[in-house]
């Protein structure tokens, strides 16, 4: 990572949990090209880091992420090439999260709007403080949230997604939990405890098993029912051959704790 990237994104690792923090609060942690490139670099590095088993995505300041940097976009109004590269880079980062062989938990404090809401929806799990707010408000400024729609529509029902996309209105954390955009809405003082307890629970599992399971989850979602069962039957049969699966089954039958080798 460059010095600029390290300024925009902070990374801290402990006990198998790596926390990635968006660190540009003065610009509401907006997804500028530089921020997106920094995030992409971090996810690329973490994908090959055997010590990391769970990722927490957080943000500095009182806004989780306000979406794309509109000032940057306005400066480039005359460049269709830049706008296309910006949205393609954003799409790349969102897919990196989904394809990352580690679970990603969004820790949401403050507002997550437009591509910021997309960022939350792209994570595998999300926990938000009760004061958090979410929206896809592009329609309010004449720019429909078409790329955020991809992640949003894969996490909530069609009518809930369309309501957010067509009205552009903010919803609170309780409503976001009810819709399935986030897993839990908690008191602000309980946010870190909840997030890192969840992360620690997951980090205590076999990293190899988590990698297999996350990949299979997203792949089977796009398949017809019969193909999904055929695919996952093969996944499980292969999973049984792994050292950790055999250790876990034996430990359960022997009434002892498993010792994972993450392979």
From TrEMBL:
InterPro entries: ClpP/crotonase-like_dom_sf, Enoyl-CoA_hydra/iso, Enoyl-CoA_hydra_C, Mitochondrial_ECH-domain. The keyword Lipid metabolism applies. GO terms for molecular function: enoyl-CoA hydratase activity. Pfam families: ECH_1. Gene3D superfamilies: 2-enoyl-CoA Hydratase, Chain A, domain 1, Lyase 2-enoyl-coa Hydratase, Chain A, domain 2. The keyword Transit peptide applies. Keywords: Fatty acid metabolism, Lipid metabolism, Lyase, Transit peptide. May play a role in fatty acid biosynthesis and insulin sensitivity. Belongs to the enoyl-CoA hydratase/isomerase family. This is Enoyl-CoA hydratase domain-containing protein 3, mitochondrial. The lineage of its organism: Bacteria, Pseudomonadati, Pseudomonadota, Gammaproteobacteria, Pseudomonadales.
């Amino acid at each position: 990572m460059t010095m600029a990237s390290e300024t925009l994104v902070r990374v801290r690792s402990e006990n198998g949990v790596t926390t990635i923090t968006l660190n540009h609060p003065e610009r509401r942690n907006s997804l500028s090209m530089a921020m997106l490139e920094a995030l992409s670099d971090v996810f690329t590095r973490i994908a090959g880091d055997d010590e990391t088993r769970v990722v927490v995505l957080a943000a500095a300041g009182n806004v989780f992420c306000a979406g794309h940097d509109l000032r940057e976009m306005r400066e480039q109004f005359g460049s269709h090439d830049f706008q296309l590269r910006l949205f393609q880079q954003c799409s790349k980062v969102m897919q990196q999260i989904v394809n990352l062989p580690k679970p990603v938990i969004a820790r949401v404090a403050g507002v997550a709007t437009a591509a910021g809401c997309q960022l939350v929806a792209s994570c595998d799990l999300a926990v938000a403080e009760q004061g958090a707010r979410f929206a896809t408000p592009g329609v309010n400024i004449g720019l429909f949230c078409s790329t955020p729609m991809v992640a949003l529509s894969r996490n909530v029902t069609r009518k809930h997604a369309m309501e957010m996309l067509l009205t552009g209105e903010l919803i609170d954390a309780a409503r976001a939990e009810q819709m399935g955009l986030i897993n839990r809405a908690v008191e602000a003082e309980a946010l870190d405890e909840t997030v890192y307890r969840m992360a620690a629970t997951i980090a205590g599992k076999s990293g190899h098993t988590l990698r297999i399971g996350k990949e299979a989850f997203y792949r089977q979602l796009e398949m017809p029912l019969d193909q999904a069962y055929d695919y996952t039957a093969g996944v499980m049969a292969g999973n049984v051959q792994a050292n950790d699966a055999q250790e876990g089954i034996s430990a359960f039958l022997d009434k002892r704790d498993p010792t994972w080798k993450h392979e």
